[in-house]
């Protein structure tokens, strides 16, 4: 049975398009944080380089992350995602931060919670929500990292599930409204996450928070990196009974449209779409303007196959503000 938050979100989605936030990483990178910024006072003696570990900023530079959340809320976002894309022990192992995973996720959720609650208090007619973001990790269960050893795996399913369980625990304790499994390029990774969610919910004896699932289509083949079609992907995750399913990252809105319309037609749940700001240029930067992104996504809304719209890589508060105004 859906919990009250899911019923509220579904009721709102029946009336209008709900706006997701934009990229966290893009906003952090704009500040050009250096190693000392990532360390802060708490981690000044950490024995491993921390630059590039955006999730650790929830502990070392919480105001920076809070400011990003606030900027998206001010732009009109209904739902903001926690700064926890790499918030598992598997991903944090690259920075020797495995022991900090629970603290990172709790802190990230609390930061987003405070900003969302403040925005809701300022405008009670526009409630805001926090989605606990769970990325795919930097390992894959379906593919070998070595072309000469197809059977090689650097992580087991149980290890992946346990890593996600720790993240889920921290996000729930930190107060998220929604659990968001996003940027799925390997459905087996996602299934480990879904199992972790169900086991953690059962352990706590609670009703599961609303679940949003978002896949990444790698290119115009319409398949994930691990080779699944959209239909195969949906059949693989439908058992989890998500509140919504959608597509994010890798493509811009123009390239994403045919795949998103296909997914919306087959999945009898709400749908979400948060594309990149177009395709990256030769320097890896995103040039698509807020006007273009919002115009393209407005077409999704007018076509009737979108319930949640937002932005991924390269999008910033002006993109979200333009989108909120357009739909």
Whole-number count of domains: 1
What is the tally of beta strands?
8
* CATH level-1 class: Alpha Beta
Our Rg estimate from Cα atoms comes to: 18 Å
CATH topology: TIM Barrel
**Helical stretch tally:** 13
Question: How would you describe this structure to a colleague?
Answer:
By secondary structure, the chain is an alpha/beta fold. It has a single domain, classed as Alpha-Beta Barrel (TIM Barrel), CATH 3.20.20. It is built from 13 helices and 8 strands. Strand 3, helix 8 (157-174) and strand 4 (178-184) form a beta-alpha-beta unit. The longest helix has 22 residues, at 101-122.
Structure characteristics:
alpha/beta, about 325 residues, 8-stranded parallel sheet, about 45% helix, 13 helices, 8 strands, globular, TIM Barrel
